[in-house]
Amino acid sequence: MKISVIIAHDRDRSPEVLNRAILSINHELLAMNLYGDFELFVEIEGSVSEARNKAAAEAQGEFLVFLDDDIKLRSNFFHEILAPFSDPAVGIVGGVNLNFDEIPFREKISSVLFASPFIMAKSAARYTPRGSVRETDESEIIACVMAVRKTAFVETGGFPLDVIPCEENVLVNNIQAAGWKVIYSPFAVAYHKRPVFPGEYVRKIFFYGKGRGIMLRRDKSKGSPKMFWKLSWRWPIYVAGFFIHYGAYVSGLIYGYFKGKKKS
């Protein structure tokens, strides 16, 4: 089994950050005795997805492991991300990216929001381990910690370049629509930086929303009919219900605390 590890490197990041990622990858590969069966691509040309596609075209591995250049792997990462591929019907496996242990308080705020199902719904599983290894859809998969069977990647055309930043979502949809299984593993974990709250956080969420809007406009989401973000007539009900439900609850809580009748 040969593995191709692909990192799209942002040249604005310090060499120390990239070196930390490479050292982490090498350490885990050595721990699993996979060092002779892998190749590492650090690609800097074009956008992130252009770099990934370019490296994937040159890769000789049966499996493509996509990682960001600022990650650090938790122990046993490669075993966990590759284990589901023992089923030949599995086309893609996604893991979890957690925040580093020692981070500024404003990054901790973003980390809490990303990991909350209340805020992120099903996509919270990208940022905190949830449940067990299972079949899923694009809502729980993120490209910074993801492995793809190269056959499935080539068959579906790789990362599309016209729906950035939701190119991995479309890739997952395309792979699933082609009949491959999509697997989420809460045990394949990498550590990854969080955006600083509120400025970087708001910009990132806006950027994600922009990509999702492009997906919907161009009808790229047909491969995933259960997609959380798909437009629906139910959305106004959800939004109104959210404010009514929690508005009533919080109002009652405040009233009970300050005005509720005290027992003698």
Protein described:
By secondary structure, the chain is an alpha/beta fold. The protein has one domain: Spore Coat Polysaccharide Biosynthesis Protein SpsA, Chain A (Alpha-Beta Complex). Helix content is 41%, strand content 18%. The chain has 9 helices and 8 strands. Strands 1, 2, 3, 4, 5, 6, 7 and 8 form an 8-stranded mixed beta sheet that branches. Strand 1 (3-8), helix 1 and strand 2 (38-43) form a beta-alpha-beta unit. The termini are far apart. The model is unreliable at 220-228 (pLDDT under 50).
Measured distance between first and last alpha carbons = 73 Å
Element pattern in H and E:
EHEHEEHEHHEEHHEHH
Which range best describes the helical content: under 10%, 10-25%, 25-40%, 40-55%, 55-70% or over 70%? 40-55%
- Global morphology: globular
CATH architectural designation: Alpha-Beta Complex
Q: CATH-wise, what's the superfamily?
A: Spore Coat Polysaccharide Biosynthesis Protein SpsA, Chain A
Query: Given this structure, which CATH class is correct?
Result: Alpha Beta
How many structural units, i.e. domains? 1
**Total helix count?**
9
Q: Specify the structural class.
A: alpha/beta
Runs with pLDDT <50, length 5+?
A: 220-228
Mean pLDDT: 88
Q: How many β-strands, per DSSP? A: 8
Calculate Rg over CA atoms.
20 Å
The CATH topology turns out to be Spore Coat Polysaccharide Biosynthesis Protein SpsA, Chain A
